[in-house]
Write a structure and sequence with these properties.
single chain, alpha+beta, 3 domains, seven-stranded antiparallel β-sheet, 13 helices, 16 strands, about 25% strand, disordered N terminus
Length: about 375
């Protein structure tokens, strides 16, 4: 705000009034990239670093004995599938490779964790819990954590000042991040707490897209971003889609480009026997020089098979994947199969099996095998 002050000069015969501008300012804006500010908020640079790598334009610091080439290859591939606007909005300070973190064992579903501006990659980030992590799995996890990083870089200046002054002991994203507050208001999360620093969230809008997203708006936003990133935008209601696409400044079509399409309401399963043609997948890998064969199978909600075949063909085409479905017979089950190519050389072998049994009801299983 500019204030006009007047300096009056006195002489024997006249007076001259000269306007002089002075400027008053409030507290300096908070720079969340400032190392001192980061440290004051409980996020000093990681210690105990043994090695350092640049992966996908980001810095990876390692506390493990050495960087694993296979892990770095998978990380590079997954980062290439993360939307550029998400990385640009709030790029993490570091990706930190550690064996484990105290207390992480209580987070049964998380394979990656975020602390302040850093994303931590644990042993289970790459080994998984039930099966090895795939490129698509890691892309989902990274998109989720990068949304948290973006939330952190949107911390409110006044909140940060109070935290640095010691009036807030534990920095929380829910009350402090303008991104979270804006998202909560748009989606229908209501804070019923009388303490603005300790919110008590209640959802009033459309149901959250995953059980984890139903915890609070912080996780709701992160899960929504992750789903859209891996092509599952049809699992998300329109209000959430509109907010995320406006925030990132990119369309759903662009965010879903090159990703598998899976019907909403599907459930990922770990079949005891592979539900795809392993021999064909191996031949495709040889023909393309690929080293990775990563299947993901989903039990679908009740649906009409032939109509679903057409929809899968259409949806993959709209996402820039080139290929066709055809009817085949596999292990006595009627099914459909096709291979779809992505511009960067990734191939998806896609199989739809109709597992109809007179005594067990009917299940349709859709399997995407990423070959890269």
């Amino acid at each position: 705000m500019l204030l006009l002050a007047f300096l009056t000069g006195c002489a024997a015969t006249n007076q001259t009034t000269i306007p002089v501008k002075t400027t008053t300012t409030g507290p300096a804006a908070i720079d969340l990239n400032d190392p001192a500010t980061q440290a004051a908020l409980g996020s000093p640079p990681p210690d105990g670093v043994v090695w350092e790598r640049s992966v996908g334009g980001l810095t990876v610091l390692g506390r493990t004995p050495a960087a694993d080439p296979g892990e770095m290859t998978l990380l590079t591939a997954a980062l290439s599938d993360v939307p550029a606007p998400l990385l640009a909005y709030g790029p993490p300070r570091f990706l930190v490779r550690v064996a484990d973190i105290a207390g992480a064992e209580t987070l049964t579903s998380a394979v990656t964790l975020t602390f302040g501006p850093d994303v931590y990659l644990l042993d289970r980030t790459f080994t998984g819990r039930d099966r090895p992590i795939s490129r698509l799995d890691l892309t989902y996890a990274l998109a989720h954590e990068l949304a948290h990083v973006a939330q952190w870089f949107a911390l409110d200046d006044d909140y940060v000042r109070r935290a640095i002054a010691g009036r807030i002991q534990n920095v929380q994203l829910a009350p402090a991040s303008s991104v979270v507050r804006d998202y909560a208001a748009a989606i229908g999360w209501v804070d019923e707490s009388s303490d603005p620093d300790q919110p008590d969230w209640r959802p009033t809008g459309e149901p959250a897209p995953t059980a984890y997203a139903g915890a609070n708006p912080v996780e709701d936003l992160a899960e929504t971003v992750a789903l859209v990133t891996v092509g599952r935008s049809n699992w998300v209601d329109q209000t959430r889609l509109d907010w995320v696409t406006n925030w990132l400044g990119v369309s759903v079509e662009d965010l879903s480009a090159g990703m598998p399409w899976i019907p909403a309401g599907s459930e990922e399963v770990l079949p005891s026997n592979p539900l795809f043609d392993e021999s064909l997948a191996a031949d495709l890998a040889v023909s393309t020089g690929a080293e990775h064969i990563e299947p993901a199978s989903f039990v679908l909600p009740p649906t009409d098979g032939p109509r679903l075949v057409d929809e899968i063909q259409q949806q993959l085409g709209e996402r820039g994947l080139e290929g066709t479905f055809g009817s085949v017979t596999a292990d006595g089950f009627p099914s459909y199969r096709g291979s779809f190519n992505r511009a960067d050389g990734v191939v998806f072998l896609v199989e739809l099996w109709d597992l109809t049994r007179a005594d067990e009801g009917e299940d349709m299983v859709l399997t995407y095998v990423a070959i890269w």
